Amino acid sequence: MFIKKLLLILVCCASLSEMAVSEDFLESSLPDIPGLTGASLSERPDFTLLAKALSPAVVNISAEEILDGDSAGKGKPPHHSPFGSQGSGVIVSSDGLIVTNYHVIRGAERVVARLLDDKVEYVAELIGSDEMTDLALIKINPESKELAVAHFGNSDEIEVGEWVMAIGNQFQLGQTVTAGIISAKARRVGGSLSRPYDQFIQTDAPINPGSSGGPLINTAGQVIGINSAIYSPGRGSPLGGTGFNVGIGFSIPINLARSVLRQIKENGVVTRGLLGVLIQEVTTDLAEAFGLSDPYGALVSEVKDNSPAKQAGFQRRDVIIKYDGKKIRDYNELPLLVASTKVGTKVEIELIRAGKLKTLTARIGEMERPAPKLKASAEEKPDKLGLKVEELSDEKAHELDVEQNAGVIVKKVVPDSTAAKAGIRKGDLLQEIDRLAVRDGKSYERVLERLKHGKTYAVLVRRSDGAVYVTIKP
């Protein structure tokens, strides 16, 4: 199918009037926009009023990273030069809290926000981020300046066909306002950059590089989504492609963002519930094979040992049809429901087993958080092999078709070093040294400590075209 040749593109470009703020910015509230009538959400609004009211609450974001400069002289930035991304953000509190995308600020040494009517650049503090939902919360110090603040709506109440408006720093041209309709709800997209909790709002309001982190706004002036990605034909495929908007943009529903941002604001991190099952779609054929009258629910293909599901009595071939009273029509709905459940909560789960209805009670556990990514600072020295390495990212794991914790990525190779002479290259995945598995940064460091000077060792390296052994001699 053609859609399989499309890649999800994160729309980050590489290289309200003063309104009353609710005590908790995460709660839904209705802004008071002078002149805006209470027309139906499906009627075309006066976009001039919405733009005038909401634009001051949207900021341009620059995220700068200091490059090591090993590619200087090759058409790339010189040693220790700043490089980064441009995106957008939404001011959500009068004391300077701003919501944006994780991929906008990922790996940044310095994050700067600029207001619409202000030439001053505000250096932002990172409060916390969540890679799995592509959300981040940053904060600026407005000092005596009164900030315009956006209001959250309720994304569960949106309908396909409603008018929406998007605001963002498209192509680094500065703040740009676009409009369109809601094209679909709860949209999941495939591709190497898809995430387990994607339930996007799809819109044809033009979203382009630099729009990431900006708001999707309904006709009442409420933020109902955070713009995150676009579909672009052929990006990374034989079709070629521009990576620019073709009328299919995606926004993170504000109700999903709300639960994530609340945890980031209060704890700096996001804790998710865990059931401990692997699930798959109940297709028409599988429904027939298992004697189900209707292809719906989530089919359990595996139950993890020592998991809440195992303790509750779940079995392979169970079909989960209700979770805490909520019907599971699509199997993709279950992970989000479980993840949103408070750790330790007892939940009743209804399922079909061998054609019979059954109810189990599980005490939800805690999902293990991803290990912090290794980040080499400008002052960090290469290791004894002449390498700087970092943890394996989700994106790179998808690209190489490997599991998480399957090795470390080579970030830099020092010329004429042991690693360079062995043919190890930037971007290689190191998986094994001297028959010892390398799973993450800590295991890599332990293996390095065992290596003896003058002895030859075999190293398993994985690249985009497959795995290969090379030899090193420290």
Tags for this entry?
single chain, 474 residues, alpha+beta, Thrombin, subunit H, Pdz3 Domain, six-stranded antiparallel beta barrel, disordered N terminus
Question: How would you describe this protein?
Answer:
This protein is of the alpha+beta class. The chain folds into three domains: 2-265, Beta Barrel (Thrombin, subunit H), CATH 2.40.10; 274-366, PDZ domain (Pdz3 Domain); 387-472, PDZ domain (Pdz3 Domain, Roll), CATH 2.30.42. Helix content is 14%, strand content 34%. The protein has nine helices and 28 strands. It has a six-stranded antiparallel β-barrel. The chain has a six-stranded antiparallel β-barrel with strand order 2-3-4-7-6-5. The termini are far apart. 39% of the residues are buried.
Question: How would you briefly describe this protein structure?
Answer:
With 474 residues, the protein is an alpha+beta fold. Helix content is 14%, strand content 34%.
**Which architecture name of the largest domain does CATH use?**
Beta Barrel
What topology, given as strand order, has the largest sheet?
9-10-11-14-13-12
Structural class: alpha+beta
Outline, from the CA principal axes? globular
Instruction: Give the helix tally.
Output: 9
User: Rg to the nearest angstrom?
Assistant: 24 Å
Low-pLDDT regions: 1-10, 12-23, 66-83, 235-242, 374-379
Instruction: Name the CATH class of the largest domain.
Output: Mainly Beta
Summed over residues and divided by their number, the pLDDT gives a mean of 81
CATH topology tier name of the largest domain? Thrombin, subunit H
Question: What is the number of E strands?
Answer: 28
User: How many structural domains can be distinguished in the coordinates?
Assistant: 3
- Largest sheet, strands/sense/barrel: 6 strands, antiparallel, barrel
Distance between the termini: 50 Å
Q: Could you estimate the helical fraction of the residues in percent?
A: 10-25%
